[in-house]
Amino acid sequence: MVPINEILDIIPHRYPFLLVDRVLEIVEKTSAVGIKNVTVNEPFFQGHFPGNPVMPAVLIVEGMAQVGAVMLLASMPDRKKKLIYFTGIDGARFRRPIVPGDQIRYELEVINLKSRACKMRGRALVDGQLAAEAEILSAMVDVPGVAGS
Q: Which residue out of 48, 80, 82, 96 is catalytically annotated?
C-alpha cells in the first residue's frame, strides 16, 4: 500500500489537482489499484454543476493517469528526476456519473511499456460498477533544471 504522504513524494501533483488518496496495490510495471474519496467540498463541484454536482469526466481520467504514474515511478531510484506526462487518451467511455460521497477505485493495467512510453488500460469503479474506462498513454521525461536529468 502507498499512503498519501508517499504519493506526495512520488508524483508532483498537489491539492486541488491531486486526484488519488491511496494506492492499495502495485505490481511493478504491470498493474496498480488506487482510490479517491469524492467529497462535496471538491473545488470543481462549485461550477460542475451547481445543485447537481458531478465529477468532470476529464478529472476521472486524470485520476487514472495519476495512479498509473505512481505505479511507474514508485520503484525508480531516481524518480525525483523524472515526470510522467499524460500524452493521450483512447477509447474513453463514461458509464455513470461520479458524485459526492462516492469512492472511486482506479484499476490500471499496463498494455505496453517501453523505456520512456507506456500505454495502460484504466477503469474507474464505484461500488463495483464500472463508471469510466480508457486507454491512457504517457511519456517519461526528465525534470527540467534538475541536476543529473
A: 48
